[in-house]
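Q: I'm writing a short explainer about tRNA N6-adenosine threonylcarbamoyltransferase for a general audience and would like to include a description of its predicted shape. Could you first generate the structure from this sequence?
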Amino acid sequence: QYILAIETSCDETAAAIIRNGTEIVSNVVASQIESQKRFGGVVPEVASRHHVEQITIIIEETLEKAEMKPSELTAVAVTEGPGLVGALLIGINAAKAFAFAHSLPLIPVHHIAGHIYANALVAPMQFPLLALVVSGGHTELVLMREHGSFEVIGETRDDAAGEAYDKVARVLNMPYPGGPHIDRLAHEAQVGVDFPRAWLEENSYDFSFSGLKSAVINYKHNMDQRGEEIDPKKVAKGFQDSVVEVLTTKTLRAAREFQVNQVIAAGGVSANKGLRTSLEQAFEKECISFTVPPLKLCTDNAAMIGAAASYMYNAGVRGDLAMNGIPGKELKSWI
Ligand code: ATP
Ligand code: MG
Ligand code: FE
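A: Of course. Here's the predicted structure. Afterward I'll give you a sentence or two in plain language.
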């Protein structure tokens, strides 16, 4: 089984071919970071234009690298949502055209299911499983009792973790996307500024990062008023320590409560060194298997979409040419 997958939900134009849901045959990602940098974030219209220019080239390159012809493919998968509607539609229309031209089934994939299934490319999933999804637009704990079954047991009430990283980076005058820069700076400080942790109600698995973000902004503002220079390394470390501690503690508590056999991390922020180390240590001590994708499978890519699609294909999920982009699509079970 060979699935051609396409992902264009945000600012990466990506395509990949996945064999049997576990093996990457080819994986191509064209990032727009350089052109989006000058705007300090992703401008939807700019993203769509880049996707239009890139998509055909990226799909061809993916087939070439795999040394495969369309006739050898089993299905075409594409991200249906959530994401920027104009960006999603470029990938969806490319996928529809390809599927129609080569008489292949079409599989609509949820972007976050894709992030989670990046882990299926690392090791077989063991259920029940707890996924910590931390990305640019999402922060949630998802319980999976089997393939294709998703229960969101907690989520952010305001900013996503990645969003908080990007906003704090802006305060520190660092370029977009800020996550990797803060991560690097945080490791250069011994002690961080003491910022608050948002635990919310005692039993809650929800998250909140806007208070932390405001605390960083206020700290900078107060220092400016006093004519003092902030130390970006200490701010980065203080911020990262707060994010990592809350994410690790809540994930650990949920893993215990639901007695899971595996914990996985997914999404762009799971590329964070501090978070990876903290989760690895916590679950090693707890004797629960922990998996996180290699860095380039944490941020947006199409290999993860192909991995999820493979299990969807096996479960009989099919889309059709009427499929549309769904910007606010919810994570629903497919079984
Ligand atoms: P979503 O997946 O929720 O739709 P998205 O696709 O825009 O959002 P991703 O591509 O999964 O998000 O992740 C991008 C985010 O990951 C950005 O906010 C970026 O700052 C963050 N990020 C990337 N690397 C790191 C890192 N090392 N540390 C912290 N954050 C990081
Ligand atoms: Mg991105
Ligand atoms: Fe993403």
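A: For your explainer, you could say: The chain is about 45% helix and 20% strand.
Q: Perfect, that's easy to follow.
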